[in-house]
Amino acid sequence: MKLPCILFIVLSICISCKHEITEQKESLIADNKVDHQLREVPKATIAPSIDGEANDPIWSAVSWQPLDQRWLGEAYTKDDFSGRYKLSWTPEGLYLLAEITDDKLYDQNEDPLKLWWDDDCLEIFVDADNSGGEHQFNHNAFAYHVALDGNVVDLAPGNVPTLYNSHVQSKISVNDQNTSLWECKITLYDDTYKDGGVNDQKILSAGQKIGFALAYCDNDASKTRENFIGSVPVPGEDKNRGWIDAGIFGTIQLTE
Ligand SMILES: [Ca+2]
Ligand SMILES: [Ca+2]
Ligand SMILES: [Ca+2]
Ligand SMILES: [Ca+2]
């Protein structure tokens, strides 16, 4: 056999092996997410108005889901924290209504990019393609921290704290029983998202599955947050995995 012929065969074997390995890797990542807490989310015929008021027709048609899984901190009382939430969608995005009871709303760091998780904030986890997998310093999924002043923070690639205010529009209304309503519209982006680039949002449709979890960071007077309460049970000792592992998110399925 001539040398060029041997080289061709060796090269073909290498390419085919590499292809196989890449496929195996991709299938491993794709299989990483096992759907759990699978819930249907109904479409809103009329998109809710983001005004912190729950009087939109869809909110009376959707049931509350509990926000009651202690991910960090000591046991707490109902006055210290209790929470529940509702979800809906339109092709333009996900809509969230969260009712949070918190005895003290606390915003110690004025700079939105400094220790944002130690201030009271609502954390919205979304994985647009429900792939699961690691997302700590990439956009395989987002962990939007919505602060009391409406700033939205997540880590960009390279571990860069970044404002994503255009991704989550929110309005909070607080009543005198220490209960606040957080109404939010979340625009979805997938893992092709480029910071500083031009990005197309994901247009949502019925049948689509999305990785989703919600959490609240409660701090009332401490240097660091006192509690972190999530919407999904996290197996194992370390419950604070949502900001790293999209596999722990629940799964929502959009319905008409
Ligand atoms: Ca509203
Ligand atoms: Ca509290
Ligand atoms: Ca993903
Ligand atoms: Ca608090």
Task: Characterize the structure shown.
By secondary structure, this protein is mainly beta. The protein has a single domain, classed as Immunoglobulin-like (Sandwich), CATH 2.60.40. Helices cover 13% and strands 34% of the residues. The chain has 2 helices and 14 strands; from the N terminus they run H-E-H-E-E-E-E-E-E-E-E-E-E-E-E-E. The strands form 2 sheets. Strands 1, 3, 6, 7, 8, 9, 12, 13 and 14 form a 9-stranded mixed β-sheet that branches. A 5-stranded antiparallel β-sheet has the order 2-4-5-11-10, with no helix packed on it. The chain is globular and about 40 Å long. 34% of the residues are buried. About 7% of the residues have low confidence. The chain binds calcium ion (4 copies). The site of one calcium ion has 8 residues, from loops.
Q: Cofactors and ligands present?
A: calcium ion
**Unreliable residue stretches:** 13-31
Order of helices and strands: HEHEEEEEEEEEEEEE
Number of domains: 1
Question: So what's the CATH class?
Answer: Mainly Beta
Class by helix and strand content?
Answer: mainly beta
Instruction: Tell me the fraction of residues in β-strands, as a range.
Output: 25-35%
Mean pLDDT: 91
> What would the principal axes of the Cα set say about the shape?
globular
Topology, number of strands: 14
Distance between the termini: 64 Å
What summary fits the major beta sheet? 9 strands, mixed
Could you tell me the radius of gyration in angstroms? 21 Å
| Annotated CATH topology | Immunoglobulin-like
CATH-defined architecture:
Sandwich
Helices, by number, come to 2
Helix content: 10-25%
